[in-house]
From TrEMBL:
InterPro entries per record: Helicase_C-like, P-loop_NTPase, UvrB
SMART domains named among the record's database cross-references: HELICc
Example of a GO cellular component annotation carried by this entry: excinuclease repair complex
Name of this protein: Helicase C-terminal domain-containing protein
One BP term from GO: nucleotide-excision repair
Occurrences of domain Helicase C-terminal (ranges): 48-178
Signal peptide, first to last residue: none
Gene Ontology molecular function, alphabetical: ATP binding; ATP hydrolysis activity; DNA binding
Pfam families, alphabetized: Helicase_C
Membrane-crossing segments per the record: none
Amino acid sequence: GQHINQVIYTSATPSAYEYEHSQQVVEQLVRPTGLLEPTVEVKPTKGQIDDLLDQIKRRVDNGERCLVTTLTKRMAEELADYLIEMGVKTHYLHSEINTLERVEILRDLRLGVYDVVVGINLLREGLDLPEVSLVAILDADKEGFLRSEGALIQTMGRASRHIDGHIIMYADTITNSM
C-alpha cells in the first residue's frame, strides 16, 4: 500500500485534533465578504436582560435582526416569552424543531416576520443571515461544548455578514475560550 507523508488540513474552525496533529498551524483571517470583523464587547451579567432588551430595540428600530443564544432550554423559553411580552417579534428555535421548520423560521427572520431568534445551539446550519447585526451570547463564561472556542467563534460569525455586526458576550469572567 502507498503511504502519505504530508497532509494539509484546512478548516474555518480547527478542532483540538487538527492542532494536536500539526507541527505548524498557519492562520489566515480573511473575510470572503470584504466586511470588517464584527466588534465584540463583554458586559457583566448583572442587568443583562434589561441591557439586551435595549440593544435589541436599537437594532430593530434600524430594521436589523438579532440572534440570542442561552445556555439552557428553560432560559431560552423564558427569554423568548419575555421579549414577546415586551413587544419584540421573537421566535424560540429549539432542538425539537425539524430542519424544514428551522429553515422557515430563519427565512421569516430574514423577511422581518421575526426580529429576534432565541436558541441554545445556533451552530447547526451554515446560517447565512446578512440582516443579523447583533449576536448576544448569555453566560458566555460558562464552560461547556457550546461555549468552547470553536463554538463561540462560529456563533459570533453569525454577525459577520452585517456591516455593523456586533457581538455582546454577557459574562463576569473571561475564559480561555473567550
